[in-house]
Amino acid sequence: MTADTSTSRKKNVTNILIIDRSRSDCDIIKKALEDSPDIEVTGTAIDGKSGLTKALALKPDIVLLDAGIEDYDPAEFVVKSLNELEQLGIILTLNGAPDQKMVQRTIATLENGAFDFIEKLQDAPEEQLIESLKRKLLPKIRTYTIKMYSRIAKMVSGESKIADRKQPEMRIESVSGPEIIKPKQQLSTGYKVVTIGVSTGGPEALTRIIPLIPPSFPLPVLIVLHMPVHFTASMASDLNKKSNLTVKESVEGDVLKPGYVFLARGGQHMTVKKGAGGQYFLQHNDDPPEHGCRPSVDALFRSVSETFKESAIAVILTGMGIDGAKGMGLIKQSGSMTIAQDEESSVVWGMPEAAVKAGIVDEVLPLNNIPERLIEITGVKK
């Protein structure tokens, strides 16, 4: 099917373009998607240059982009394609356990606006490869499609526009409804930690928050980002290069101190405990995944509620699913402050929505306003 005009598209069908340097992988991905009536593969390409040309011509809803394409930097591909196709979703596909170069490529591409990524099985029977791709790809494709149609509907009705990354006015939404107000100065010397939970869209969101926090920020920051084990060290290193604070992947026994951001290492839950000497330190465990995730936002938030009581600021950002809502409820019950990212600026308003609908969020903010609000709450002098 040729999908270069809106009239040639099938109604309620998500159009997919596959770009993969392996023709056999292209074929297997097509087979994984062909039984889904709501999805249609409208084209394939085996390199980035021809893939970009096809993307601009076919205007697909989603591009499945091989992170290992050799003729084009995937991050550059994302920037160029999103400049032309604002509603385009890009899902990276990686071959097996990636090496360090591929990890860094993937993180850079996510930070530039790719929707998400999956790791493809290697050296397995075709039927197993297809089933694995179905399990990993279909939820992400459908989640993005829901987001896309919701945004388009709001744009058509005049309720919304594509989120502007420069939002000069702070918008706070109470759980009972949105309200445009200037927040009251809410200074406190009692806060001891900021804790953040984030998933889909997380690398880009964190890149737009953490570097804006000044070196004088008085609290340690704890982050759970849903990422596999071999990605979190590189993500922390990349953030560290861009930030005023020291960003590091968490290590067992790390002592919390101002000026540091601790990103939970992949594959384990991260929790915090108060030691006999009054210091707070990090612990890790191999408890079962929660909501299919390890590390889990809920695991960290529960720990923070028990350890810091009313002295925490909890932030939940863009992400698929409901991880973090229960834990944020405990943090709220303990008397701490809670903030959620708003729908307009979220890549996926799943985790924040779950917290907002539970009635446990003090403020709902656009992503760009969150760093300024944290600075204001803690009374930092910039």
TrEMBL record:
Alphabetized InterPro entries for the sequence: CheB-like (IPR008248), CheB_C (IPR035909), CheY-like_superfamily (IPR011006), Sig_transdc_resp-reg_Me-estase (IPR000673), Sig_transdc_resp-reg_receiver (IPR001789)
Catalytic reaction list: [protein]-L-glutamate 5-O-methyl ester + H2O = L-glutamyl-[protein] + methanol + H(+)
Ranges for domain CheB-type methylesterase: 187-381
A GO cellular component annotation in the UniProt record: cytoplasm
SUPFAM superfamilies on file: CheY-like, Methylesterase CheB, C-terminal domain
EC number of this enzyme: 3.1.1.61
UniProtKB keywords: Chemotaxis, Cytoplasm, Hydrolase
Domain Response regulatory per the UniProt entry, residue ranges: 15-135
CDD domains the record matches: CheB_Rec
GO molecular function: phosphorelay response regulator activity; protein-glutamate methylesterase activity
GO biological process: chemotaxis
Keyword Ribonucleoprotein recorded: no
HAMAP family: CheB_chemtxs
PANTHER family: PROTEIN-GLUTAMATE METHYLESTERASE/PROTEIN-GLUTAMINE GLUTAMINASE (PTHR42872), PROTEIN-GLUTAMATE METHYLESTERASE_PROTEIN-GLUTAMINE GLUTAMINASE (PTHR42872:SF6)
Identification of the protein by name: protein-glutamate methylesterase
High-level lineage: unclassified sequences, metagenomes, ecological metagenomes
